[in-house]
């Protein structure tokens, strides 16, 4: 039988917040921690919800708790209701960036910081000098709970992946890049290379690899298609948990690193390094901004997305300098034109 409509005036809307976390966590203690209440307050809220719905909601089993059939239905309904309420109460007068002191939070790989972090800082400061920016750097891998993470962040910059293809997540492509090879300037492999290495060179040389996964190269590894073209997996000499640190472990050695062109451009003034085209047609790098749908109608967030997209666009001078005839980093004696970042 359908329950009669209930007046909002007769409801404690705090129960809605607890219900959402309870259905997410399936655990009273964790739900209490998520919303910052005591265990006893959470237990009391669960009792009230059970009386209201006439249902246990959480059913104990051997491994913990399961959602009752009614709770499964409620889980589908409570998320859009809470999201709509958050939008309603976050509504404010027209956003004025020159007056705002809002903090925007981004989670990014350190490569992305090198690619356009300074331009983002300058764009943000020029338009909204009082606004604040909190940049969190990805540590090896993105968080497992992507949707929940994006509820509390303004965005994540990352290449597309299965974990990011989730309901409620929006995206916008920021920029594309390509893979290049970095070797020491005195590495014999660079002599007569014609500006590009061969697959046999990548097979023979020891590698410097950022964020190298233990035990192999999963299909999600960015260079997995290139590695698949080698007869054997590359011999890894140095693993480093930073894209920006990679060239420091190439200089003065026989090692090679396969890295992003925008990042390699920052080392154009170093005479002890050379950047060469990468063989094997590795896949393009596509960096994308991801955010939660709850930000769609937020004027401040929409403005921030536009600023981020503008900052990510590469200056035309850098695009021209990235053509093959301007690309190789040589020693000063060769004096070719160098790319600018």
Automatic annotation (TrEMBL):
HTH lysR-type domain residues: 11-68
Entry keyword Methyltransferase: no
Q: Where is the composition biased (Basic and acidic residues)?
A: 311-328
| Stretches for region Disordered | 311-341
* Keyword entries, A-Z: DNA-binding, Plasmid, Transcription, Transcription regulation
Query: Does the keyword field hold Transcription regulation?
Result: yes
Entry superkingdom: Bacteria
| Record-linked InterPro entries | LysR-type_TF, LysR_HTH_N, LysR_subst-bd, WH-like_DNA-bd_sf, WH_DNA-bd_sf, YidZ_PBP2
Q: Which family does it belong to?
A: Belongs to the LysR transcriptional regulatory family.
Q: What is this protein called?
A: LysR substrate-binding domain-containing protein
